[in-house]
Design goal:
Radius of gyration of chain A: 23 Å
Oligomer: homotetramer
Number of domains of chain A: 2
CATH topology of the largest domain in chain A: TIM Barrel
Largest interface: C-D, 53 and 52 residues
Helix content of chain A: 25-40%
Order of helices and strands of chain A: EHEEHEEEEHEHEHEHEHEHEHHEHE
Number of strands of chain A: 15
Strand content of chain A: 15-25%
CATH class of the largest domain in chain A: Alpha Beta
Strand order of the largest sheet of chain A: 7-8-9-10-11-12-13-14
Largest sheet of chain A: 8 strands, parallel, barrel
Distance between the termini of chain A: 45 Å
Structural class of chain A: alpha/beta
Shape of chain A: elongated
């Protein structure tokens, strides 16, 4: 941490700051320029509370140097983290595709979708049993019944299941039914939930909040990692900006930036990131081209009848076409779509 | 809801949309312009799922007409909602001031602050026992011990207490100790929590998420109201924008806009909205001038020793000055600072 | 400037950076922490190109220390800058109010408005002769004819005139007709225009771009100041954010922040900042409460017939009411509305 | 345009609005719902001033239906616009790559870069002679001398030249030296400049402003097109958001969205969109995968010595690698990198 003094700070103010730095068990290092003095507070890498200096007389501002996350950083773990999900490696050479409806609406809808996405080559099934909805009057999901339907779809298709968890109490139940717990964008900073997911030791997909910085996403991952749960994948799903032609703005920069900052797998959700099925395939291609490790995509057999997010869902036939295009992009950058349960050739030889 | 068809939509596509509108129990109303057809879906005011039309062939876009919230709207309840808090009216003629430290750090710190803010003329005491922190390594609050200290401060000073609740399970415990439950910005769309707070029937302060629109804030209030809990006050606390000279951007427009859209009391948190004590008083004045019903302000006896948010906390002597200035502004617009337990004259005669 | 080295930077990389710092005529100051080395580049206060270091091996990032503007800073000129405008001090104790229509539409409209705002107590008349419009098909202003009408209004009412200038070539003509040149939000970073306005030595009102930071606004002011033109006032007019209930988001924080960073007068435009006449008066009050030195407000005798921005224009009778309310706020903070040509008592004694 | 009346609008208010609609030569179409009345104003497709209704008693809000741009729309011109640039088709099957330094610094630097980018397979040379800089104290470009150096580089390499124009007066001079005029992000809404570029009939590259919506970009293109100049290409270069890990946020959604809304060629600038050379190649790949027609990339032989934007410039050897990767992506989606003057095989057969 660097403490930048004001240009008119007097000697006694500088001394007081230095004293406090040393009182906190840190080493103070002075640098006197023509205009002002800068005090470096050198420690053992643990974060220091900058607010404790911000208020002191003569202090202009504080510049943090050490990144506030550790376990999530690539410096801590230079190798890519890879974890297996029912035979498929998340974060490995092969691109992983998770697909399914926004919400589990009923047994027939989910099973039809599950079979369709499996045949198309998906590696996992998504579907919400608990739905965070802006309106108290909207469909809130089937709850445990939805989880049971998901389990049935897994039994039928063999696809691992991923579903959202909304409260700490739901964690044990969701772990029982699902292979991966999803933490939704609105809950990215629900620290009680992150804590519980961390303690569960169950694989987690952490979605970036629509107004969260990349650093905050990594801090939320750190919450989970700090409880010993290392099976975390991150998901870019679009951020909120002034542009509203699309539902969200896909932060495509976040893909290579995250891959440089963290060892965790990074996937992209082109459905929420665009909010419009017409643009989903183009953004899915862009995500893989930029270096994403996978995709999570909304697929619905009859989007026009969906109880939520129909407008951004692909029909199964369009999803087939999306996988074909994504596969071509994957090969162009020396990767491939991971081999799927459907046994479809994805046109690439696994190394 | 209006369904705007594409300019090249054909007759059969229009017919299919009209059919679906009627299948949903709504009345369809066609308007054919030179360029395109617009279909109005006229119902009983209940929200309709626009996604169900977005995907239909020939549809360009959907324009919602009915606001998605009802109980929170001024149309539903034209009179200002006023609710008493230990003798003070929230949302009435008098400005209400809530003050205290960001976090309850220990007994001495809280009691000292409680006495100081009472003497300065505050109407309620704030202080966090459960703290949502970006970093898992930061001070997370004292938990129930913090609640006990708050209760002790109430017993000593007579000030009602307001504190944050982070999970549905904490609701009963927090209700037991606190007069008002605060829902923090990061939990504004934690729907499970909103549900529990709604069912508790306990007064609530709902902070706007840093990424939430005014409409989303009202939708979250609607969650609480729809469970029959009508004692809800809203709090603007700054939004996230590209400007980062200040911690957040105070959305001062939100004050008159909210007052026109809803009957609920609206207060402002100048501490988070600026992130810097130097600007807190100016923004507190602006909030009251713009029509806010109250303020929630961070006050700490030794901000430079605070375990969180010290940089945005006022010292007690500055808080005294802030109340004096806010009182002058209140009078300039024909209001006053509500009479306080300290019995201080605020320079205004209550009408 | 501080050069933060990567944690794995090697000795030779550090040496190379130090060498370059010294080659640039600066002094290098090393600070070796547990984790990494920081190199301070200490100079004479002139800005250094940080990009020249960003690319060097081993460099993590650059932290600028010296602010990039000088003449605009309060450190350079601790006293408030005050400049007279036809008998009224801009930036002094008295609040200055500039009012008039968005655009000069015709002689009758402007003269009627000019008389109305004068009688209400305005100190200057605004009106656009050159209009920057998003659409090439919208009314683009009357051009020089509009300037002539403005001059006529000044002759009739005695009010000084302020109008927008859009290109460097228009500068001499606009100077000839207007007392103050306005640089619009979309031209805040039109550096050729800033250069010409700087050289003109004519008073200027510089509006903040809707997506410009406070620092960028001050850098644009620096362009004008650096040509020796010191009569510059700054104008907050709302920024673009994700919130779109209002046309823009008033950055009320910018008022006290600018007053702390610069000696230049700061005014606010509540018409553009809200985009809705219903909220103009509340935001005008807030601006003065927050410390603004003045207001620029759109007033139109028949807003529903205005060729542009009618929805955010006040009718003359509402403008009268706005001044009364602003005057009460001004007194509450120990200021007043400056005495006007209309000779109206504004209820305050000039100190 | 739809005029949404308030729920409590009375009959006479509705009548007055209808009257005005008809007075404007439009047809009024009433739709009376349970809650409120909606009035459609049906015309000949010309934009109507919505502000003229916003102020009327009983009016709640206005919903525009007709898009405000026409010549730029895909509805107006369903086929992709393609225009030749010295033998290469912009907007055709082949991807076009424009490369060069941010600024022309001197003869040696530009010629070295020009040869390097030509050999790597670029189709055009970029380089700024007039530089918009945030600081008045930064290098402002060589002006006409820079244009002469660009012309010399064209004579030597045969590459067409693209350079920025900042004011209307510079247009004739820049047309004389350059093959394509660039309108920079800060000037996207400099309407006087757009007007002059439109009248010049010279090819133009229009960069999206960092704060401009997609619709505003198309409105600015409309300014140029409306003067009969049809050779316009659009450039996404990143927008400003709350995320500041990268210099800007690449709005990758804008690529497929623009391709669906307009017939004009769309390219992307990964250098400004990321601000960091490490991420340029990944975002270049993503842009092509998303459907962009080309790229404009900063290349500098010695980025660490660049007078501007060194940190985001690729070294020539990295640029060679970028083209190879982009070429593989282009093939994966059935396109190719256009044949270049360097005669390099780009691994694709032109159809």
């Amino acid at each position: 941490m660097l403490i930048i003094m004001k240009t008119d700070a007097i000697e006694s103010q500088i001394d007081t700051v230095v004293q406090r730095v040393e009182d906190m068990g840190l080493r103070a290092h002075l640098s006197k320029g023509e205009e002002r003095t800068i005090i470096g507070a050198i420690g053992d890498g643990r974060p220091v509370m900058k607010d404790q200096f911000l208020y002191m007389p003569g202090v202009d501002r504080i510049v943090p140097i050490t990144r506030p996350f550790k376990l999530a950083s690539r410096e801590f773990s230079p190798q890519d983290s890879v974890f297996p999900l029912d035979g498929v490696d998340i974060g490995g050479q092969g691109i992983v595709i998770i697909a399914g409806p926004c919400a589990v609406e009923n047994r027939a809808q989910l099973l039809e979708t599950a079979h369709a996405v499996k045949e198309a080559g998906a590696h996992a099934l998504r579907g919400g049993a608990y739905k965070p909805r802006t309106s108290p009057y909207s469909f809130q999901g089937l709850g445990e019944e939805g989880l049971q339907i998901l389990a049935e779809a897994r039994a039928e298709t063999g696809l691992p299941v991923i579903t959202e968890v909304m409260t700490p109490e739901q964690v044990p139940l969701v772990c029982q039914y699902a292979d991966v717990m999803q933490i939704g964008a609105r809950n990215m900073q629900n620290y009680s939930l992150l804590h519980s997911v961390g303690e569960s030791q169950h694989p987690a997909l952490l979605k970036r909040g629509m107004m969260a910085t990349i650093e905050e996403l990594l801090m939320s991952a750190e919450y989970i990692l700090s409880h010993g749960n290392r099976r975390v994948m991150l998901c870019e799903r679009g951020i909120r900006t002034f542009e509203n032609t699309t539902r969200n703005t896909t932060d495509i920069n976040a893909i290579p930036v995250l891959k440089s900052m963290t060892h965790l797998p990074v996937i992209l959700d082109p459905s929420h990131a665009t909010g419009n099925w017409e643009f989903v395939t183009a953004i899915a291609r862009a995500a893989i081209a930029a270096g994403a490790d996978g995709l999570i995509v909304e697929v619905h057999p009859s989007p026009e009848l969906a109880l939520s997010d129909g407008g951004q869902s692909l029909k199964p036939e369009r999803f087939v076409e999306m996988i074909a295009q994504v596969s071509a992009i994957a090969q162009a950058i020396g990767r491939c779509v991971a081999p799927s349960k459907a046994g479809l050739s994805t046109g690439c030889v696994h190394v």
